[in-house]
Amino acid sequence: MSSGFGRYVHEIVDRAGLEAKEDGSAATEAQHLLLAIAAEPEPITHRVLDAFGLDHHAIRVALDREFERSLGAVGVTPAAFELPRASVERGRPRLAASAKLAIERGLGSVERKGDLRPAHLLLGILQAPVGTVPRALDLAGVDRDDLRGRLLEALQG
Amino acid sequence: MRKTVITGGRELPDLLAAVGALRRLADQVEDAAVEQAMRSGWSWPRVAEARGVTRQAVHKKHARRLIAAGVELRRR
After folding, report:
1. Would the CB atoms of B17 and A88 count as touching at under 8 Å?
2. The CATH number of domain A3-81+90-156 is 1.10.8.60
3. Which of A13, A23, A30, A92 is geometrically suited to a Cys-Cys bond with A102, CB 3.0 to 4.6 A?
4. Which residues of B fall within a CB distance of 8 Å from A26?
5. pLDDT, tens digit (0-9, with 9 covering 90-100), for A35-57
6. Buried b vs exposed e over A116-134: b needs ≥16 C-beta within 10 Å?
7. String of b and e for A22-44 (b: at least 16 CB within 10 Å)?
8. d(CA A19, CA A13)
9. Alpha carbon B36 to its chain's center
10. Secondary structure letter of residue A27 according to DSSP
């Protein structure tokens, strides 16, 4: 693993852990990695995400919509009741399968490990065909193929 | 209230996503409810019985978080 990529992944996983706790989630999921990426000033990922209107806030809103839609599929309306905010656990949450898969896909997207760059992590997240991130991006009206294509172009340029 | 009829493959992605969303919602409700109960002076055994789990299970899952948050915990 190239050291720049490894360092970046560590930073993102740390930050994503905070996003997960903010969410009341016991584990760090792929969507928390995406939120963390949107909050870190890495130039290639930012140029591409910005072009699709995907800043941290927009991703958060899309994820909230996805949560509501998923619950709505079985007739549950979270807006129907107000929960008091619970205190969050200290320490770093474990990595969930979706986050591990995103990192593995990022690693697997280059032939030589030396070619890995930070934006390959985002590429790994965007390779998920199903799950929370694709659903949230669809709800935000994002063309995922286009987004992935633009990211690949930016990585090659 | 209209009932959702599960037919064909069309709703499968929504249903599979709903499983994760329900678990997450259940966790949020549990965290908030246990914290409210302990802040109101409930004991671990009472919370555990109301929740339908053992005292050890509820303690293991929530004690560290609540102690860190400065909640005064009753032993019994």
Report:
1. no
2. no
3. A30
4. 27
5. 999 999 899 999 999 999 999 99
6. bbbbbbbbbbbbbeebbbb
7. ebbbbebbbbbbbbbbbeeebeb
8. 10
9. 12
10. E
